Amino acid sequence: MKDDVTRDERVANLKGMGCSRKRVEDARFTQGKGNYVDDIKLDGMLFGDFVRSPYAHARIKNIDASAAMEVPGVLAVLTAADLEPLGLHWMPTLAGDKQMVLADGKVLFQGQEVAFVVAEDRYAAADGIEAVVVEYEELPVIVDPFEALKTDVVLREDTVQDGKPVDGAHGPRKHHNHIFTWEAGDKDPTEEVIANADVVAEETMYYHRTHPCPLETCGCVASMDKVNGKLTLWGTFQAPHAIRTVVSLISGIEEHNIRVISPDIGGGFGNKVGAYPGYVCSVVASIVTAKPVKWIEDRMDNLMTTAFARDYWMKGRISATKEGKITGLHCHVTADHGGFDACADPTKFPAGFMNICTGSYDIPTAFLEVDGVYTNKAPGGVSYRCSFRVTEAVYFIERMIEVLAIELNMDAAELRRINFIKKEQFPYTAALGWEYDSGDYHTAWDKALKTVDYEGLRAEQARRVEDFKAGKTRKLMGIGLSFFTEIVGAGPVKNCDILGLGMFDSCEIRIHPTGSAIARLGTISQGQGHATTFAQILASEIGLPADSITIEEGDTDTAPYGLGTYGSRSTPVAGAATAMAGRKIRAKAQMIAAYLLEVHDDDVEFDVDRFVVKGAPEKFKTMKDIAFAAYNQAIPGIEPGLEAVSYYDPPNMTYPFGAYVCVMDIDVDTGVPDIRRFYALDDCGTRINPMIIEGQVHGGLTEALAVALGQEIAYDDMGNVKTGTLMDFFLPTAWEVPNYETDYTVTPSPHHPIGAKGVGESPHVGGVPCFSNAVQDAFRAFGNRHTNMPHDHWRIWRTANALGLHD
Ligand code: CDP
């Protein structure tokens, strides 16, 4: 390095934390050089696909595969009867339930996997599927969770013994179709506070069933090498190590003989966390045929059968003083889990972190009760771009605040302000148990309201109502507000495990002699840009340029064990592991530098990219010098090499927050909303890469718009999926998406080594209630209190109609 390089130039050269470093991944993605699972082509590779049930609830009387075996190219047809002797006809779900890999005597939802056809290519497999004859006997279909809790119809035979419900994975059942009850908070004190309150607002809301719908569907390639007994499994896995452990446990193949590789992944959003029958069947088919087997879903398979999100019926009561100080909150949830309980939640939290439903508010007393229920719908219950059930929780409280504001005849922004947890109350222990690490809600709220000129907007809205009443316009104006607190970064291990696997994460760093490095993590990017940002954390921690650091994830043969990427946990957990491993490197580098500079260890200090002798900055060794010396110079008492590993068990989760405002015009005659403005202020603590954060916010808001304004997995009474294609399932395009304005405050996490909180999912969590509140607020002056999402044009039109606005 030139001698005349300034300190600022040295900092800039690192491209460390705080810099909008361009995404290193994009060179391959923009040139079509990504390597997704369907790009993997192996010699002699076969293709597997499913015969799926057309019925939502039926007994299987017979499966005849003889004609299918005659189809040219078809090599095998697997059924439950073939898997049962191997003990592979069922698999544990992430929630500890028993999910059939191939339906064993009965189907529980439309699209359920009945048989697996293995063929020489996809086309032959499709022909084989057509030729398999399955004889079904239809059974009564239950798609309504409330009906499921009343009916005599038993959906799952394993829930009943001697005519009585048996205990499930999460305790006693109230009914044969009931899965669990989960409670948090204080029931009696909450009832007492609500009974004696000045004002109580009540509302029931349905957070509809939707789906993460990643652009790339789920899939895998299984390759069993019988010569050396090694199974390699490439797939769209958000948690490759967890998949390896689960595959080992259910197949009996020792874990060191399984290599799981997540190549590039085209979006996950929770959909690719769990294990699917396709993975098990591909592995079995590869073992049976001794050839690699690929399974890739099509869009309908993905929407109809892989993990859904939400489907929560939430009933709330919120109490307050006349002045608007909230005193208590009660929430009851009826959670529709479909045919198997395959929710992706830490074991101790069968309703995820729904107990963050007191939101950003200082609510002294609260009680939450969740009942999980089986129905004839697809299994799932994953956190679609949010931490476990946090979107449901934030939607609930942000709607309850709006309803309370109506009850109090008060401005909803002011109601929020007077109830926010104050800056000096952090760390704050909420009534339902969580300890919020840090926050400064009033500053964020004031900044947001000032930026959008909130008072001006309300005045304009009032004029619009007058004009509407006077017949001068047919458009109403809605101002959507939301203030959210996310809870991201699961562990700690003492609280959080999935199937007994503790939720820590990891980073292993190897510095090469010439001063470049490779770092491997237990997480896996699905578009979030980890290769860019984790190198930035390291650049700042170890003083080598980010451009000289390769980040690798997703190969269990090389990466240290970790629990993967979902619930915005990468930065809070693996990001912390990265910083901690970097600090171990730095500690050893300090000793080497002191030796080279012939001073005591304490007499050198780290400065950007070097260690300098204290008080004599002209005497220094750069990290590059130190890396070379670490390998090539015999240093007394110090082992050669410069490597470190950190397994990080976070002491707490991180609590990012944000303040969002949406301004919307609604045409009451067509029901079409026009999003005029969307302002999003996010606080994710220390910001690693502002450009990537902005991209994450744009993406999260767009998925929030989708969910709030149209996206839905809808069923008819027969259990038919009505929205199983992208013709019916709303995916927003540039046409619907507004120009987002982003902003931020910075409130570092006090326990995270670099003060960073997660951000990837915050905009979704805050965005859904903000869009929904804008729609509902447009109709507030005409008596609207609450309408359920999704607010598609038809439903908005119906709201206007029900309020008499078409008369
Ligand atoms: O777990 P996931 O990667 O989905 O979410 P995340 O930890 O919130 O990170 C999403 C992306 O935003 C990553 O590339 C992070 O490094 C980046 N990020 C950031 O630059 N600064 C933060 N404070 C948080 C995340």
TrEMBL record:
Database matches in InterPro entries: Ald_Oxase/Xan_DH_a/b (IPR000674), Ald_Oxase/Xan_DH_a/b_sf (IPR036856), Ald_Oxase/xanthine_DH-like (IPR016208), AldOxase/xan_DH_MoCoBD1 (IPR008274), AldOxase/xan_DH_MoCoBD2 (IPR046867), AldOxase/xan_DH_Mopterin-bd_sf (IPR037165), CO_Mo_DH_lsu (IPR012780)
Residue span(s) of domain Aldehyde oxidase/xanthine dehydrogenase a/b hammerhead: 31-140
Cofactor(s) named in the record: Mo-molybdopterin cytosine dinucleotide; Cu(+)
Name assigned to this protein: Carbon monoxide dehydrogenase large chain
Sorted UniProt keywords: Copper, Metal-binding, Molybdenum, Oxidoreductase
Quaternary structure annotation from Swiss-Prot or TrEMBL: Dimer of heterotrimers. Each heterotrimer consists of a large, a medium and a small subunit.
PANTHER family for the chain: ALDEHYDE OXIDASE 1-RELATED, XANTHINE DEHYDROGENASE
Record SMART domains: Ald_Xan_dh_C
Entry function: Catalyzes the oxidation of carbon monoxide to carbon dioxide.
Top-level taxon: Bacteria
UniProt-recorded Gene Ontology molecular function terms: anaerobic carbon-monoxide dehydrogenase activity; carbon-monoxide oxygenase activity; copper ion binding; iron ion binding; molybdenum ion binding
EC number: 1.2.5.3
